[in-house]
Structure formats: C-alpha cells, structure tokens
C-alpha cells in the first residue's frame, strides 16, 4: 500500500485534508476584511436557520400532542434544562437561554459541518475560542458579582491540610486559567481531526485497489463523526454548566 | 498536510498560489476578525430568537401539556370514583331487590299456607260431620235391622208353632223370642 501511495503521489494523488477549512469570500475573491461575507458567514447563518427551524418553526403549532419535529425541540429543551438544573441547581436556571444558545449553536454547526462539501465553523479556533472565552469571562465576572471576594475560595481548598493549601491554590489557579484553552481546543480539535481524517481517506479513494477499503473507512469515520458532533456539543455544554456551578457555589 | 511549493503573498499568508492551505487554516490569524465578527452576530441572533421566542414557547407548551395531563388524571380519578359509586349503588339495589323478592315469596308462602290450613280445617269439619251422619245412619240401619229380625223371628216362631200343630199364642211367642234374643 505504501509503495502504491508513493507511486500515485507523483501523478494525481495529492492530499489536501486542510483545504476544507479555508475561509473564502462568498462574492469575488478579494481580501477578507472583518465584515466580508465569507463561507463562515454562510454556514453560521445556516446554523441560525437550523436552530430557528428546529426550535421555532417546529413548535409553531404549539400542539399538546407533539409532532415529530416538536418532540425534537422539546427533547432538546428538556435535555439542556435538566443538565443545567442537575448541575447548577434551581438558581442556575436563569442562565438557561445562554446555555441553550451555546448548545443549539454548537450542535447545529457540528451537524451542518457533516454535510459533504460544507464548511465546518466549529472546527475553527476563531469560533471556539470566543465561545470558550465568553463562558470563562461570564463565569469569572458572575462569580465575583455573586460572591464577592468569597469567589477566591474556589482556589483555597479548605478541606486540605494548611501546608498544602498554597500549593493547591497555585494548581487550582493554573487549572482555572487553562479552562478556556481546553474548552475551546477540545471542540475544534475533535471536529477538525475527524474531518481531516475523512478527507485523508477520501484521498486514498483515488486508488482503485484500495478504494473499497477507503470508502468503508470513510463510512465508519462518518459514523464516528456523527457521535462526535453530538458528544462534543454535549461536553461543551456540560462543562459550561460545571463552570457556572463554580461561579454560583464556589465552595468545594 | 498540504506541502505545495509556497509562493508568497499572492493570495495571502494562509493560502498558496494553488488555493491550498498553508499549514492549519485554523491558525490563520488574518481570518480571525471576520470569523469572530460573524460568530458574534450569529450568537446574538440565536440568543434573541431563543430567549424571546423559542424557549418561552416551548416552556408554555410543556406547562400546558403538564396541566392537561394533571387535569386528565384528576378527571380520570373522578370518573373512577363515580364508577365505584355506581357499582356500590348497583350492588345495593341488587341486595334490596333480592331481600324484597324473599319477603314477597315468604308472604306468598304464608298466605298460601293459611289458605291451605283453612281449607284443611273446613274439610276436616265436613269429613267429621259426614262421618257422624254416616254413623247415625248405620246405627239406624242396625236398629231397624234388629227390629226386622225380631219381627221375622216372631213370625217364623209363630209359623213354626202353628206348623207343629200348636196354638200360637202371639204374646207368648213374642215374649219367648224377646227372651231368646236377649239371651
């Protein structure tokens, strides 16, 4: 297989697994300024449309006995609501629209990204870092507003022996500031890796001998990506809830 | 990764002249402002749609459904209680009817019994009267038979006496027959 690959690479087999992530202007091909409508814009707006269709259009009939799509909307609502309530308690419920926005955006963007030839917005750090930073800033500000200086108790592990506490405080502080990094890179990394791997397998499909294997591998990866698309949205949301809980109840 | 020959600054620092990515497009900071700008718009729009329209509506639907379910359950509970009540009433009516039927049957039986008793008593009395009458008749017949026998005996005795050549004294014969018959 390796010899075939190297042989083919000379002729037509070229891998560009990262080309799918290139940002292009929608109209013309000039430079990309901050306001230029790009493929990012298109797929972000499609995510809005998906969220709108899923949560607003499907519930327009307000049926007591729900239609299929309304059930999905209610399921998504109940899923995130219960998650938030279980983790943050009753006083976390007022941040539900915020958490729901994050979940619905990520889940829709992830699944839109699974459409072949689409652009996956959540595979970009430029998208996930603002999301994670927003959560980080919200949680930090909320923590200080709600608890004042007591929020710093988050870093002062009162259940540990006194001698250990300063060390633990440093570790806790570092882990606190690493949160937005891991939070954002986890999402973008997972989504990007899966898409890139699918693209690599797709490159191998050009070789007739191994193309069946390649197609099978793409199918399997796609299945895995469907799982990842949901699980990463879930993980992002549940971590948001956990961070929110820290802000609302900072004691360990 | 795309390892095409890099021709600088034709399309940008992130894309080479063939339109392929240089390194990771994710790390192309030229595009960051654009992506962040549209992301913020997207998030604001989604947030407004959710918090203004979608979430209150879904919450209302869920609450309404919960209310309907609660009401229906209560109604079902009511109906069940009513059914139990109706069954009790039915059972009671059944028991009443059965008691009534028994009472009527007993009454009828008593009535029939008393009628029967009367008839029996009447029949007994009649039978007794008839028996007494018959007894009297029998006694009469017996008495008249005895008299007839006496007459026949006297006549026979007188005839016998006459046949034997004697002179039949009526009184003597009669006395002799009486004495014989008493004997």
Automatic annotation (TrEMBL), chain A:
Its main location: membrane. GO terms for molecular function: proton-transporting ATP synthase activity, rotational mechanism. It comes from the Bacteria. CDD domains: ATP-synt_Fo_a_6 (cd00310). GO terms for cellular component: plasma membrane; proton-transporting ATP synthase complex. InterPro entries: ATP_synth_F0_asu, ATP_synth_F0_asu_AS, ATP_synth_F0_asu_bact/mt, F0_ATP_A_sf. The keyword Ion transport applies. It is a multi-pass membrane protein. It is found in: Cell membrane; Membrane. The keyword Magnesium does not apply. Keywords: ATP synthesis, Cell membrane, CF(0), Hydrogen ion transport, Ion transport, Membrane, Transmembrane, Transmembrane helix, Transport. The chain crosses the membrane at residues 40-59, 95-119, 125-145, 152-178, 198-219, 226-245. Belongs to the ATPase A chain family. NCBIfam families: ATP_synt_6_or_A, PRK05815.2-4. Key component of the proton channel; it plays a direct role in the translocation of protons across the membrane. This is ATP synthase subunit a. It comes from Ruegeria meonggei. The gene is atpB.
Automatic annotation (TrEMBL), chain B:
The chain crosses the membrane at residues 36-55. InterPro entries: ATP_synth_b/b'su_bac/chlpt (IPR002146), ATP_synthase_B_chain (IPR050059). Belongs to the ATPase B chain family. It comes from Ruegeria meonggei. PANTHER family: ATP SYNTHASE SUBUNIT B, ATP SYNTHASE SUBUNIT B', CHLOROPLASTIC. F-type ATPases have 2 components, F(1) - the catalytic core - and F(0) - the membrane proton channel. F(1) has five subunits: alpha(3), beta(3), gamma(1), delta(1), epsilon(1). F(0) has three main subunits: a(1), b(2) and c(10-14). The alpha and beta chains form an alternating ring which encloses part of the gamma chain. F(1) is attached to F(0) by a central stalk formed by the gamma and epsilon chains, while a peripheral stalk is formed by the delta and b chains. It is found in: Cell membrane; Endomembrane system. This is ATP synthase subunit b. Keywords: ATP synthesis, Cell membrane, CF(0), Coiled coil, Hydrogen ion transport, Ion transport, Membrane, Transmembrane, Transmembrane helix, Transport. It is a single-pass membrane protein. Residues 76-111 form a coiled coil. GO terms for cellular component: endomembrane system; plasma membrane; proton-transporting ATP synthase complex. The lineage of its organism: Bacteria, Pseudomonadati, Pseudomonadota, Alphaproteobacteria, Rhodobacterales. One of its GO terms (molecular function) is proton-transporting ATP synthase activity, rotational mechanism. The gene is atpG_2. F(1)F(0) ATP synthase produces ATP from ADP in the presence of a proton or sodium gradient. F-type ATPases consist of two structural domains, F(1) containing the extramembraneous catalytic core and F(0) containing the membrane proton channel, linked together by a central stalk and a peripheral stalk. During catalysis, ATP synthesis in the catalytic domain of F(1) is coupled via a rotary mechanism of the central stalk subunits to proton translocation. Component of the F(0) channel, it forms part of the peripheral stalk, linking F(1) to F(0). The b'-subunit is a diverged and duplicated form of b found in plants and photosynthetic bacteria.
